[in-house]
TrEMBL record:
GO molecular function, one term: anti-sigma factor antagonist activity
Domain (STAS): residue spans on this chain: 22-134
InterPro entries per UniProt: STAS_dom, STAS_dom_sf
UniProt cross-references to SUPFAM superfamilies, sorted A to Z: SpoIIaa-like
Domain of life, source organism: Bacteria
Stated name of the protein: Anti-sigma factor antagonist
Organism name: Leptospira gomenensis
Gene3D superfamilies in UniProt: STAS domain (3.30.750.24)
C-alpha cells in the first residue's frame, strides 16, 4: 500500500482479518466466519473487502459476523459491497451478514440508508452469534 505522506495513511488502507481465536469460536458452525475490518471501507478499499468475503463464500461460508469496531469510515462503495454480498448470500444459500460493535457514526449511516433492515446489527459478538443461530 502506498502512503499519501510519510507517516500518513493511504485512503485504500483497509485490513480485513478473519478472527479464529475468539472466545466464541466453539459456538460457530462451519458455515460461519468472523471478520474484523480496520480502517476505511471506501471507494479505494471496498473491492478488497468484498473479495475477502467472496473468497470465504466460495469456501462454504454463508454467515458473516463482521466486527466494525475499528472501522473509521464507510462510503457508498463500502455500502455497495455489503449490499451486493448480502444479495449473493441470500440468493445462493439464504445466508446473511451481521455486523457488530458498530461505532455510532457508522450505525447512523446504516440506519439513514435503511440498510439496518437488510443487514443485522448487534451490540457485540455474543449477540451476533445469537442472531446468526436464531
Amino acid at each position: 500500500m502506498q502512503n499519501t505522506k510519510p507517516g500518513g495513511t493511504s485512503k485504500d488502507e483497509l485490513l480485513v482479518q478473519e478472527i479464529t481465536d475468539s472466545h466464541a469460536q466453539g459456538m460457530l458452525k462451519k458455515n460461519m466466519a468472523i471478520l474484523k475490518t480496520t480502517g476505511e471501507i471506501s471507494l479505494f478499499s471496498a473491492k478488497k473487502f468484498k473479495e475477502a468475503m467472496i473468497e470465504r463464500i466460495d469456501n462454504g461460508v454463508n454467515i458473516f459476523l463482521v466486527d466494525l469496531s475499528t472501522t473509521s469510515h464507510i462510503d457508498s462503495s463500502g455500502l455497495a459491497a455489503f449490499i451486493s454480498t448480502q444479495a449473493r448470500l441470500f440468493k445462493e444459500s439464504q445466508g446473511k451478514i451481521i455486523i457488530y460493535s458498530v461505532p455510532t457514526h457508522l450505525q447512523k449511516i446504516f440506519e439513514l440508508t435503511k440498510l439496518d433492515k437488510l443487514i443485522g446489527i448487534t451490540i457485540d459478538l455474543d449477540a451476533a452469534i445469537d442472531k446468526a443461530l436464531a
